[in-house]
Amino acid sequence: HHRMFLEPQEKKRSMKALVVKQAKKTCSCTPAKVKDCVFGFFPILQWLPKYKLREYLLGDIMSGVIVGVLLVPQSIAYSLLAGLEPIYGLYTSFFASIIYCLFGTSRHISVGIFGVICLMVGQVVDREVERAGYDLELSTLPGMAVHANTTSWPLNQTSQELLCDKSCYAIAVGTTMTFIAGVYQVAMGFFQVGFVSVYLSDSLLSGFVTGASFTVVTSQVKYLLGLDIPRSGGVGSLITTWINIFKNIHKTNICDLITSFLCLLVLIPAKELNEHFKSKLKAPIPIELVVVVAATLASHFGKLKETYGSSIAGHIPTGFLPPRPPDWNLIPNVALDAIPIAIIGFAITVSLSEMFAKKHGYSVRANQEMYAIGFCNIIPSFFHCFTTSAALAKTLVKESTGCRTQMSGMVTSLVILLVLLVIAPLFYSLQKCVLAVITIVNLRGALRKFRDLPKMWHLSRVDTVIWVVTMVATALISTEIGLLVGVCFSMLCVIFRTQRPEAPLLGWVAESETYESLAAYKNLQTKPGVVVFRFEAPLYYINKECFKSTLYKQTGVNPVWVKAAKKKAAKRMLREKEMHSGDNPTSINMDFVAEPLGFHTIVIDCCAMQFLDTAGIRTLKEVCKDYEEIDVQVLLAQCNPSVRSSLIRGEFFKEGEDHLLFHSVHQAVDFA
């Protein structure tokens, strides 16, 4: 076998030249570059001129109308979850659909109100409203009229003279947080840190959404029962809320309870039928709208509020409020809370847009998606809206009803506009418990993930554990801490996997040059005098001790002990010599000679080592030196270029010895 000598490539350019070239490229300004920049920032300019009216229009109109019809009751219901007036949910859905249409690169996703984010907004809104001195015990009915003249933000939140009512202060908090979250998302897009979403794995996001869904369901139970208890926020809010519910269960409003039960009886089977006959139905039955209309009529004509004291949606004004900037004084209070909201919002949007793009064979740009979702938060925050992101359920409806482009988003906005201008006040008598039922029923998908656990466990135990840990932490501690726990735990899982990796001895497949694990395969052969060892992880400071101990265990020889035993034996032999010096000098007790080792060479297969750090290089040096002292040579095989250059830079080889790096295990064994 001839030795292979690979000549390394010369580095083409110095770092300075590369930086200069990149700077010239970035700072150059040609008409073509300006055009690309504008078209990249406003994707609508690319697809709208190519819009095929005959082919696309019908599908877009149909899907837009259906999503709009579904969004109306959900927007009102989710406003309740965010602790805000119903009208603000409609504003949010209206603006988000238009803005995403201008900036988004995905053709299918529906951007609007997402339950988990509403919950996170609602928790902060309640905390800030309480901190500002409003009494949460007061009826949390969003029944006050919201007019332009009442919506003046307080100048100083600590002043006793509160300059606007509770509902208007709540939306001030909501819009300020939405603005900050949008700024974070645009900044992430600008600095191209879309990679942050890489740390939010599918199992982590799924666990987070399921855990948050429990909190959402819990926050809505009081409406189902017609109880008037303050929302618990902070750590352990799920448990606190259930304790409060059971303490006050004797105050249950029977009328609300019956209404909730009837709505559940209608909504759940109808939703299941919609899913079951998805392929046969051209469009899903807008059962939520039917329930909302029927419940509103029943409540209005049955005078449920007056007779039974049911809590109702109250006055929903028509038209738009004049735009107002967020309350800059509130920024320090909510800046930290906006970080998890911004990250979850863009992670869900990017993952959904990529999923649908892959399914339909087009590409989306993650950074542009971050700009799009950022502007879907920044611009509407001036129009009394709260935080949005892509929503899976509505996206699936949109896709299945024939959506082809984001033109369907424009149609959805028109449907909501119609409601805003004409229909909204008609929902005055709608019971809140109906809205709570709609919110809970829409979480079926997230809560159904428990069914997939056995399959997930079979596929990957680590992913399942990450899912469970994130879900439990999100539900029992809080949404923000749950997300943080999930991210940290995921990273720890990766570290633990490299901390104690597989490290088998290898055997030779007969009549080939292939070496495989002796523990995994039968009928492998070994070459006498040569041990082949593979370490299946990068060698760095965390696992250096594991590398040594596993190598010593697998080879059955710890060179330090052997060396110590030899020294001990030599000393004893010397003593014996001195004792028997008077007798025959050749009669030395041969028991003291160390027993011979079963091998003379160790070949370390480095194919699975992605990198070495200084601790890794030092460990390899120590291992080689220790084995050398007991006459065992250590050879390295299949090092990748990164490991190879680390070894050369770390002066692993003595002068002219770098030929002892082998390109294959077979070569190293032959050399041995």
Automatic annotation (TrEMBL):
PROSITE patterns: SLC26A, STAS
Alphabetical list of InterPro entries matching this protein: S04_transporter_CS, SLC26A/SulP_dom, SLC26A/SulP_fam, STAS_dom, STAS_dom_sf
STAS domain span: 520-672
Subcellular location: Apical cell membrane
Reaction catalysed by this enzyme: iodide(in) + chloride(out) = iodide(out) + chloride(in); oxalate(in) + sulfate(out) = oxalate(out) + sulfate(in); bromide(in) + chloride(out) = bromide(out) + chloride(in); nitrate(in) + chloride(out) = nitrate(out) + chloride(in)
Entry-linked NCBIfam families: sulP
Annotated protein name in UniProt: Sulfate transporter
Organism for this UniProt entry: Acanthisitta chloris (rifleman)
Upper classification of the organism: Eukaryota, Metazoa, Chordata, Craniata, Vertebrata
